[in-house]
Amino acid sequence: MGYVFDFNDAVAYERWVKNSQNQRTARLENRLMTEMLKPIRGETLLDIGCGTGVSLAPFIDLGLQVTGIDASPYMLDATTRNLGNRVDLYRGFAEDLPFEDNSFNHASLVTSLEFMDDPAKALEEACRVAKDRIFVGVLNRYALKGVQRRLKGIFSHTIYNRARFFSVWEVKQMFRTLLGPDIPVSWRTVSQLPTRPGDATMKFESSRIVQRFPFGTFAGIVVTLVPRFKTRPLTVRHQAKHGAMS
Asked: Whole-model pTM?
């Protein structure tokens, strides 16, 4: 199940999002997400651990049919305030999604894997309900900002005390354990600098070359899923011809 955000967590997160500098960071991360996932208008997407809906809005703007699920009722309340009836919302856990196999074209987990007790099971469930691609956005374990956050958590209580930071390679390995070593995986990172992005750094951060550095604060990983089909045994009826054997 992992850590479920309470009322104070939800209020603090909404306050963080409303900060103008943090909005620049969110736009940078959302741009990376949509560029890597490459969804098509009319497709369906499930955002697992949707929080207050920050990562849902870009997909709605692109014309996708969007569904969000989160374990926190306070986060879902915030999503409803922010997005209204433009998104279908469910309360539930990433490790046990209440959807049928192959229900969505895509699935996304954006800074939600960090707060789950069983991240491998959450990815397995994402692979089950999606049929095309999965985007995972994580707080990079090897980013300078990530190190600062972990150090701060030693001396004071922050939400990052509850988080498990991942590297690109750890997420890739979990997917390859689930889906096999040949599964197509790509990755990029943004927020290379520990400071919040300004006008001068946004162009730098948007460079595809720079995004191939493995030390950005936010890492995006996309997996292209191999088609899976449900099968059931069919009874084969055969009537032997009389006299076929003597």
From this structure: 0.85
